[in-house]
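User: I've been trying to design a sequence by hand for this structure and keep getting stuck. Would you show me what you'd pick, starting by listing the structure so we're on the same page?

Assistant: Good idea, let's start from the same input. This is the structure you sent:
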């Protein structure tokens, strides 16, 4: 009898314990591709502190995510890699402007595969004949690509190098090209270089572009605004910022 009771309790535990998590409220967070690693870990920390909430992430280029939200995708929170993309959604009244906050800062770097035999000490060195393929995000949809275009234009190199550009759908695709050695150089964020580890090397930190400040905001159509605010508050908190610092992000000034 005792064994039967213990068996019954064990069976109930198998079925009932997972159901405690089944009751968690889900929120969808669309975030820039460059945030993938840091935001995933921040989400895990948030869920640990808020077991009643489950965060579903959607990572892509900021422009692609902006288009999804414009087309009615069910999103609760949006985190962009640039201000322009968030401005576009605000102009369409698709985010709540009072919830818009800047939460991290990044830098743009020129990188190469780890085994590349290149000597690049200034942007001008990109003109050398040995550099035939330069990867960057599509400036129309990828903020990192826009920053790269702005930077190269500032150095007077955009038109000069135009026939060497390999456009990518996200900054993480540029990172993949570099890791696989499919391009000679590429423009990524310093945080992506951290993810690349010893598979790539940073050649230069780029200048002559707007500060790279990431904003986060609630999507107007969200039916879970209170929960979304709990998430954004965590991202802005010391605990949330500590996670992003692990991946090379800094607080915006």
């Amino acid at each position: 009898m005792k064994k039967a009771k213990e068996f019954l309790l064990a069976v109930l535990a198998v079925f009932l314990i997972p159901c405690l998590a089944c009751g968690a409220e889900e929120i969808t967070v669309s975030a820039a591709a460059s945030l993938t690693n840091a935001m995933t870990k921040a989400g895990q920390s948030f869920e640990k502190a808020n077991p009643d909430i489950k965060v579903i992430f959607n990572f892509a280029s900021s422009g692609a995510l902006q288009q999804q939200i414009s087309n009615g995708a069910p999103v609760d929170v949006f985190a962009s890699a640039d201000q322009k993309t968030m401005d576009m959604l605000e102009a369409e009244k698709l985010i709540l402007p009072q919830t818009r906050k800047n939460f991290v800062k990044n830098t743009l770097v020129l990188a190469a595969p780890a085994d590349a035999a290149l000597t690049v000490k200034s942007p001008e060195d990109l003109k050398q004949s040995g550099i035939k393929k330069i990867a960057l995000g599509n400036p129309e949809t990828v903020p990192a690509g826009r920053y790269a275009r702005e930077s190269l234009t500032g150095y007077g190199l955009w038109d000069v190098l135009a026939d060497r550009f390999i456009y990518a759908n996200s900054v993480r695709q540029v990172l993949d090209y570099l890791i696989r050695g499919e391009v000679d150089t590429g423009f990524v964020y310093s945080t992506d270089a951290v993810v690349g580890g010893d598979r790539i090397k940073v050649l230069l930190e780029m200048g002559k572009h707007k500060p790279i400040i990431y904003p986060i905001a609630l999507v107007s159509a969200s039916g879970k605004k209170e929960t979304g605010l709990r998430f954004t508050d965590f991202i802005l908190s010391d605990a949330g910022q500590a996670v992003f610092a692990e991946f090379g992000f800094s607080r915006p000034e």
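That's my pick for every position. To get oriented when you compare it with your attempt: Residues 235 and 241 are 6 Å apart (CA to CA). The mean pLDDT is 93.
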